[in-house]
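Sample 3 of the quickstart, ligand 4'-deoxy-4'-aminopyridoxal-5'-phosphate:
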Amino acid sequence: MVSKFSHLYSKNAKEMKASEIRELLKLTERKEVISFAGGLPNPGAFPVERVREICSYLLDEKGPNILQYGTTEGVKELRIAIADRMNKKGMNITYKNVLITSGSQQALDLISKTFLDPDDTVIVGAPTYLGATNAFRSYGAVMESVLLDENGMDPDLLEDKLRLLQMHGRSPQLLYLIPAFQNPSGVTIPLERRKRLLEIAREYDMIVIEDAPYSELRYSGEAVKPMKTMDEDGRVIYLGTFSKVLAPGFRIAWCIADQDLLNKLIIVKQAADLCTNTFGQYIAAEYLTRGYMDEHLEKIKALYKNKCDHMLAAMDKHFPKEAKWAKPEGGMFIWVELPKYIDTKDMFTHALENNVAYVHGASFYADHSGRNTMRLNFTYATDEDIDIGIKRLADTIKQEIVNQKNGKPAHTFKPDEEGLVVGV
Ligand code: PMP
Ligand code: G9A
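Result:
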C-alpha cells in the first residue's frame, strides 16, 4: 500500500523493497503450509533449560546491572569469550577487535553505511544472501555478480569482472563472501581459493566481508580456516552470529576487524542503536564461558545432519529426474536446479496451492538470473513434514514440467551481454 507520505520518503527508502525471505516467513505461521523457505533453526534445538538456569543465576547473582545500558562495543565478558573462541580457529585477536552487533544483519548494515556511497559497487556471488544485497542496496550501491561453482566464487571470473569494471572506471569497495556452506547454494570455498580471492582483494584494494553464520555447522569433511586468519593487511571483516547455533531471537552477533576499522564501525553503531541487547549478551557470555556451546553444537550438528540426509532421501525418492541438486557438507540449505524452462517464481503459486513453500532462486541473484533454481531449508521442518512437503513439492515440479511441455512458453530472461548490472 502506498503511504500518503511517500512523497516525503528519502530516495533510498523509495527504492527499498520488502525482503522475499521476511515476507515468506509469514507462511510459517500458516499451519497448513509446510515451509522450506526461511533459514530457521529447529526450535527443538534451542537450549531452553540452560538459558533458564543462566537467567536465574544472572538475576540472582549479578543483579540489576545486567539490565542496564551497555557500551556500544558490547559486554566485555562476551567479547573476551568470543576472541578466545576465534583464536582457537587460528585468528590472532583480542577482545578489542570484537564488536557485538544486533545480529549479523546489523553488521552488514553498519559496513554498508561506513563504506558505500550511492552508485558504489559491491561484488557478490551469483547466487548470494539476499539480506546482504538488500543492505548494500539500501545505501544506493550497485551489485556486480560473479558466478559461483561447486567451490564457491571462481577467482578467475572475479578477476575478469574486476578488469572489466576497471575499464569502465569502476573500482568496487566491497567483496562479499560467505565462504562456508554458502547461503543459498550450500557450497564452501576451499583454502587455496580463499587465499587467491584475498590476493585479488588486495590487488584491487577491496574490503572483504567474510560472513560466516554457518561455519560451525559442518556435518562431513574437513574444516577450512577462516579467511580472517590469512588477512595480512586487515582488510577482512569477519562476521559471526549466535543466530544459527544458539537462538536467533537473542539477535546477538559479532564483527571482527582491525582496531582502526572497528572504531569507525562503533561510531556508526552508536547512531544506530546505542548498544546491543545487554541481557542477551550476558546470557551468551555465560553460555560460552561455562563451556555449553561445544556440547550444544555436537547435538545440533547430529540433528541437522539427520534432517539433511532425510530430505535428500525424500528428494531421491520423489523428485523427477529433471531436478538436480548437490549434497551439502554443512549449513542449512539444499540448492535445487530445475530445467531452464521452469520459472520457480511462477511455480510458487502452484506450490502454495499444494501447501508447500520454498524460496525461488532469482531472489538470490543480484542480476535476476537463476529463475530455474530454488532453495530448500532442511533444519526447521519435522521429519514427517519433510516427507510430506517434499512429496508435495515433487508433485508440483512434475506438474509444472508437464504444463511447460504442453506449450506454455519458456521465460526469456537473458543477462546483458557483458554481465554488468548498470550500463557503464
Ligand atoms: N548472513 C547470512 C549469510 C545469513 O544467512 C543470515 C541469516 N540468514 C545473516 C547474515 C543474518 O543473521 P543474523 O542477523 O540473524 O545474525
Ligand atoms: O529470517 C530471516 O530473515 C533470516 C533467515 C535468512 C534466510 O532465510 O536466508
